[in-house]
Amino acid sequence: MIHYHGTPVGGTRQDGARFLAGRHALVPFPRQDDMGIVADVCQSFVFDNGAFSVWKKGGKLDVDGYTAWVEQWHRHPGFDWALIPDVIDGDEAANDALLSAWPRELRGVPVWHLHESIERLERLANEWPTVAFGSSGQWASPGTDSWWKRMGTAMAAVCDEQGRPVCRLHGLRMLDPAIFQHLPFASADSTNAAVNGGSISRFGMYAPPTAGQRANVIADRIEANNSSAVWLPPQIELIV
Asked: What dihedral do alpha carbons 159, 161, 163, 164 form, nearest 10°?
């Protein structure tokens, strides 16, 4: 699987460049601070429309501005795809309208939110090469018991009898080995390394001296793990 690390990265610009070199990055539309570094040193990158930040802080997503930004970068050889604008707690009709308006040549990925219907997930999985899973509603916190049960229902809907997903799956805010090792994800993302690289307390008295070094340690530990090749329902009992 591909491990996408959220940016911007803390510390100096040199720290950021060292951390991102050879990795895969997720760049959020509201925080393009590291875009130049990402374009130069990352193996590949994806774009986040910033809907999660809008959902947490309030405000309105600049769909036109985001689309123009993707148009500017989508021909870069490192560009993988962009999350299609969505409303995290919106209704399915509103999110389907945003999908319909998205230019197909821009390699967009739709988001299925866990509070939405399984029928919508099945439709997206059969219409798009990749579908991203976004935690929302009563399942807003990845890794809880109820979240795993909901994911089990979702996996049953998009995987065949051998546990193989019908399309590529991406986990939003799911770059945690305790999560992605049990799921047949093609990719996942999180800001864990970028955010917690600044935390000395996470490491204790033997913490690496710089934020960049600490971020590298976190990322290396994450990338040492892979996703599951298939969905195996009995795993859910072990997790919860």
From this structure: -60
